[in-house]
Amino acid sequence: MGLLFHDLSKAMHEVSEYVYKRQFEVDDQLASEYDEYRRRKMYEDILHNLSFLDAAISLEDEQLFLSYVEWLYTLMVNLMPDTTPTRIKEQLITHYELLIEGLDKFLEPKTQALAKSILTAAIERTKVYEIPKKVSTFEEGKYGWARKQYLTYLRENDKNRAIQFVEELADNSFTLDEVYVDVLQPVMEEIGHLWHENKISVNQEHYMTSVTQLALSQFYKRIFDTPRINYSILVCSVGSELHEMGARMVSDLFEYHGYDSVYLGAGVPIKALMESIESYKPNIIALSVTMPQHLKTCKEYVIKIRQQYPEILIAVGGRAFSISKDIVNEWPIDTSLKDAKQFLNWAEQTLGA
Length: 353
Description:
Strand 1, helix 12 and strand 2 form a beta-alpha-beta unit. It contains 15 helices and five strands. The chain is globular, with a radius of gyration of 22 Å. It has three domains: 119 residues, Globin-like (Orthogonal Bundle), CATH 1.10.490; 75 residues, Methyltransferase, Methionine Synthase (B12-binding Domains), Chain A, domain 1; 125 residues, Cobalamin-binding domain (Rossmann fold, 3-Layer(aba) Sandwich). The chain has 353 residues and is of the alpha/beta class.
């Protein structure tokens, strides 16, 4: 998962301290079950849970947190094979009950009712939720063989062969758009699933990501050699969002199709973004969000950009937007699309490029 930054208020940090202490008071088994490492992880997890809850409250989107509840339960079952699913559900339900208790003490009254409603729904969802059997299409279709082979090289730690294989795909089998969107993007998603299922470690996930970044970098000469079309795009991941692969792919493919791309990378603060917009005056701004707790920040960015630069097209994308399909309906954006190929088609139609 990498490092996580939690843009939480003082009140939410007070809730985290309160809930951490109360967990051990109400569940005396935890003292014997949790060593020092698990205790530290537990506190980090409380902050993580609160960041998702805070986003759901701010965006008034219950489904945002309920999707996270399912994801969290599945993760804990995979990471804690020595603990029964029933016991894990008991721990999670106790945790959500304590969050209600803590939020009643520290949260402003006007948001307490919504927070309680979301957490009550989370408790009910946890009680009945069963992990569905995974149905994967990863190895199916035109691109399945290539995805499988590339992931095999990654899992074998064969960096050189993995990078060579990607280059061969672009030279012989698929267009660069297909390599990026139909091969590498699904592989990165599958790597995330493998981590979630506890089949690879965080270190392996990071290694596979770094190798894929190297694989992408070998295309830069052909990307920047294409004719220009006199349109520009600025791309970044917002706030403290550290996942940047999707944003990098968007920037690369727009550059390849003739746009002048300005890629700001991950973790871009609003001040830096606004200064870059003023400097480069792009036709399109693309904001990427992978982790749903950063959707709140993304909305703030969108509103500020729209107010200051009403003429610039704003697009948002990333895995976070798939969790709640209606979340951007009232945002002042021009589009929200699934992948870079769809985004390119939209830009071409909109700008007449």
